[in-house]
Amino acid sequence: MNFMNTVTKTAAAAALAIACIAGGPALAEYPDKPIKVYVGFSAGGGTDTYARTFASMIHEQIEMPMIIVNKTGASGAIAAKYVSKQKPDGYTLFFHSSGTFLIKALRGEMDVNVFDHFDVIAQVGRLTPTVVVPAASPYKTTKELMDAAKKNPGSLRWAHSGVGSVMHTAGVAFLSRNGLKAKAVPFKGGSKARAAMVANKVQFGILGAQQLSGFEKDLRPLGVSTDTRDVMKPKVPTLKEGGADSLNISSPMVLYAPKGTPKAVIDKLGKAIEAVTKTKGFKRLLKKAGLPIVYQGAAKTTSELKMLQDDLKPIVAETTKK
Predict the structure, then answer these.
(1) What would the pLDDT profile of 11-69 be if each residue is shown by its tens digit?
(2) Does the model's pTM come out above 0.85?
(3) Are 224 and 233 in contact (CB under 8 A)?
(4) Which helix (H) or strand (E) holds 93?
(5) Which domain holds residue 192?
(6) How far apart (Å, rounded) are the C-alpha atoms in residues 276 and 283?
(7) Alpha carbon distance 116, 110 (integer Å)
(8) Are residues 37 and 75 in the same domain?
């Protein structure tokens, strides 16, 4: 609550500053009015927190506020479709967890996709799937968990945030690539999956690394699904370090514009976002929220998304059978 209050107050101050100069001459170039950023998830989650944090500070770079609009439903599909049909002028943008974006498109659950309907502006962060067990669990390492699953195929129960989510996909990849069988228990969102682990209702689960913040005494992370350790949880090894065969799965947090947005607009927004990510205020707020800062411009982010999509295709094909 304190974190959200801080962001809200910062955004309010920005809006007030803009209001004070509203009577001046109109800006000769983009932007000359507030920018709306649509988020496909409800307020308070990781995606929304990233968006509200950079939006609360970007007025210092572009002299216009960004307004966050939460248009929820269908794991972001409703917001994505809406923004894709808007005028590509830089005033209506879409911020999303791109792992989810790619997976939903591959599963045929979205009418739009990253590459055909959007231009990438920049990446600001990343959500990292993490294999987690309750603090009271006898499993201290990834190897111990895998040994137990192999010894008793199908007896362990694992929690995830919903079929087709990044966490579900990462979990299926972990099991499949290591020849393991366990019973999946889906929940509507990561917080409910986390609660099940805290209550010892399941033996393990897949959570975003940021969801461990504040639950260090209740949960034990065993490994992250990425090739490198999460910058916010550097003591947690990768699954590969723990002896598992692991697919490099994460969810880049990316700001998009409708396809056909002028390059000058993309470049200006990208530079503004980069400047924001380097500020002490942004770093402080993201650290408080347990979220890593991973900035990349349009070209590098687009390349990363294409590679991630290629990696996800075989696993998504498998999850659609589950």
Answers:
(1) 555 544 444 444 333 334 899 999 999 999 888 888 999 999 999 999 999 999 999 99
(2) no
(3) yes
(4) strand 92-97
(5) 129-224
(6) 9
(7) 12
(8) yes
